[in-house]
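Input set for joint prediction.
Command: fold jointly, output tokens.
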Amino acid sequence: MVDEHADPTVGELREGVILRSILDRLGESNALVGPGDDAAVIAAADGRVVATVDTLVHGPDFRLAWSSAYDLGYKSAAVNLADVAAMGATPTALLVALAMPESTHLSFVTGLADGLRAACRELAPGCRVEGGDLTVSDTLTIAVTALGALAGRAPVLRSGARAGDVVAVAGELGRAARGLRVLFERFTDAADAPVPVDESVLSPAERDDLAAQLRPAPPVALGPLAADAGATAMMDVSDGLLLDASRLAAASGVSVAIDSTALGDDTHSALTGGEDHALLATFPPDRPLPAGFRRIGRVVARSADPVLVDGAPYAGRTGWDPYRDWDARTG
Amino acid sequence: MVDEHADPTVGELREGVILRSILDRLGESNALVGPGDDAAVIAAADGRVVATVDTLVHGPDFRLAWSSAYDLGYKSAAVNLADVAAMGATPTALLVALAMPESTHLSFVTGLADGLRAACRELAPGCRVEGGDLTVSDTLTIAVTALGALAGRAPVLRSGARAGDVVAVAGELGRAARGLRVLFERFTDAADAPVPVDESVLSPAERDDLAAQLRPAPPVALGPLAADAGATAMMDVSDGLLLDASRLAAASGVSVAIDSTALGDDTHSALTGGEDHALLATFPPDRPLPAGFRRIGRVVARSADPVLVDGAPYAGRTGWDPYRDWDARTG
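tokens >
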């Protein structure tokens, strides 16, 4: 017997013990075949399955001084659940490939499992971790695959927006970016290295922003509702509204005209901040928007600028990363 | 325009350029929605999808001095295709999460894509990389998710073996382990660090063993055939026959009696060597084995030893790793 209260490292434990500790946290399987065999078997009732993968890597994507294991589990699930939702689908299962140093404590692994489960419970009830893989690595890496069901709907692609459509979003814009600024400005040492978060020094608004960065809560349930309401195109906003709207515009052969007065007080963060995983969608102009979506602009004929803000190219810093340029997915 | 002939590093390139280089190597999508949107949409005609993930990490799982990019692409696909086959399913799609240092050259990425495509073409025609994720990491990490279709079959679990069943395998046993020994014995320097492989110094048999280690070719097409032939239990042999047969025995509540005379000349490697990803299956005794499977023993009533070799517990070194102990998956 291993005494979990002693919080051993994973290098001291048998893989079976680690797996059991994870599975004990995840609750009952919802799958036709859940964890424990060579593969899981997941229902895909309408004969199609939506599938996506996204990875969080220690260093580029998170710092352990800032994110708890629970936060990382929550975020790694949330970002993938949002991708499924953005197709108009309902998440059905996650597979988690966890690569971690042998010095990782068991409490980290169980905390991560708790965060994964909480994200599923809060954002996508019925979805669960149904499989995965544990490996040793010098770099803590969490690759989550999410599967989803369209329930007879046509998938909503990035390429279907037409001039005249309404542009709308559901969920937060810019809050996670403000939370990231809180981390960099308040919780680094003199050498700019991350130091542990102390929430007691933050205002309520800062705490909310920080929560949005560490544990984003995209409106997963609204993806299928948008599809049912006739969304012509949809994607999740992972790299900022300007950048992601540019991708949607390029895929659809249109331009997107945004009305900055619809973006709240912190327009710059709303336009350039990523990681909230809001849903960006376009709808035919002649129908009411589904509950949870708000109008932020309209689709116009393609012009030299994929995105216009109040009728002109955005003049502020876009925050675009050369590794994440606007043509990243659409060529 | 980026001059690919100059072989830039991925840190010098936009993500869109890297993605395009990969997609150009992968050929046409077979999916309902292929790469380029928030998620792929894959056919799952009988209303179920088989799903599994396995990760290769630089250091624990491979050395770049020994494995080419092509080898890594091939192997990372093959190990996951084998898991799908072991359920009795046919692979339909792969998702590839690739985390790599910014110093990685573009030629590495395209070589990896070539290996992924070759493994699909040779082992699972119709299966393709239909999605993925690129991230920066200090540690080169390849997490592959494989999806598969059962085409109306019941999935073949580890838990269905019954006393009296025939135990059979399809594919190699022990060859990849011999290939690993070739690497450690012939291609390390005085400090036991890996040095580049020079195949010209090897015998033909050593070259074959090395190929089995670097580019395993599991009998993926035989998984569905085994299911159709009535296999009562099945799994792929990833950690060695003794260890994996113990898992199957534990899941089924039986013991497995192996006849060592069926294992060829190198009995020890066949019993303890992993990574060939042969298919281990049990069949009712009253039917002919499907083509490609050979009898290696029988299922007996559960005893104190989950696996017997020629009627007794195996006396040799098992090669079991505390991180990969026999109860790893089945508890």
